[in-house]
Amino acid sequence: MPVPKKKTPKSAQGKRRSHLHKPAPALTKCPQCHGPRLPHHACPSCGHYRGREAVVIGRPELPE
User: Fold this and answer.
1) What share of the chain is helix, strand, coil (3-state, %, to 5)?
2) pTM of the full structure
3) Is residue 5 part of a domain?
4) What are the φ/ψ torsions at residue 28 (nearest 5 degrees)?
5) Has residue 29 been placed in a domain?
6) Between 6 and 61, the higher pLDDT residue
7) Which residue from 2, 32, 34, 51 has the fewest beta carbons nearer than 10 Å?
8) Is residue 58 situated within a structural domain?
């Protein structure tokens, strides 16, 4: 089996693997607050998803 004569430098190894990076997530605009959010997820700033409030954001819970 062939064996490399010299150790590959980290810079050459990085250049070879430059296309293996993880792409940035695609963001969509929230129709309610117009903030960025992930597709098919509730908005992290207002908590709306598909026209209704799915997650309560920023409201303190009342003690019983």
Assistant:
1) 15, 10, 70
2) 0.59
3) no
4) -115, 165
5) yes
6) 6
7) 2
8) no
